[in-house]
Specification:
CATH superfamily of the largest domain: NAD(P)-binding Rossmann-like Domain
Number of domains: 2
Shape: globular
Largest sheet: 8 strands, mixed
Distance between the termini: 40 Å
CATH architecture of the largest domain: 3-Layer(aba) Sandwich
CATH class of the largest domain: Alpha Beta
Helix content: 40-55%
Amino acid sequence: MEFRTAGVIGAGAWGTALAQVCVRAGLDTTLQAREQQLVETLRATRANDLYLPGVPLADALKFTADLGDLADCDVILAVPPAQHMRATLTAFAPHYRAGVPVVLCSKGVERGTMKLMTEVLAETLPDAPAAVLSGPSFAGEVSRGLPTAVTLACADAALGEALLNTLSAPGFRPYLATDLVGAEAGGALKNVLAIACGISEGRHLGRSAHAALITRGFAEMTRLAVAMGGQAETVAGLCGLGDLVLTCSSPQSRNMSLGLALGQGQTVEQALAGKRSVAEGYESAPAVRELAARLGVEIPISEGVAALLAGEIDVDGLIDGLLSRPLKAERV
């Protein structure tokens, strides 16, 4: 398999960063943005100051608002927000060529259906071979070529190997896995857990509390992934533990910054006001909570965050609820 052209759907921060990676990997790359005005700005300025300020874009990168312009691409990277993945792939369906691999690069659980992005892809583009790209990666750092390692999960070993070689670029190192469910589950839950870590930071609860949230959050992530059919080994890698550590440790994370604002006393509405980029944890929390309940999996930190975001409890109620849980043995 040889891939020479790439289409990246979604010109937010992460989509733009991945388009930069594709260019550095030697692919003829087109970045699709929903808004024609943004496309014109990208072409004129060679910068995406709306979502990724201060990063010069590669001269070879092309831009379009028309999904049809991606019809002849050898590989598609789908990077819309998780809650818009279904609508985006449905819109792309008339232009899609059967057999072209689709790399899913958005993290989350679809609200209402409680489905992962691979399931959404299977329903919207049933002839698309699927891969999942996930791991500890801030868009600004990736776009600048700073060293980054991620997981590329693909059930088809030969296709996975081809994609691995295709998307490897200076500063961007993917590791191959075959467990798509584990890769997706880790990426979906870590955003909710990052909100909890932000709340802890905003309340000045200390580094001990922060470490405890990451560790017990990782236990939640592992339990849920295994219950969904994923492998604990996958979640212990870059797409699970690695992504969790990064997202829970820096206010560069949109999810942690949301939690930080909540911990400092802002309401959910105030914390979200004026934000262009989506905090996927806010969008996915209700679906993650419902999914865990359906599977009979305990995820108290994530459930507490979902309750807070839904207005069922306040920050003090979240903290008190976690600290007053029954004592028990430590286990995943």
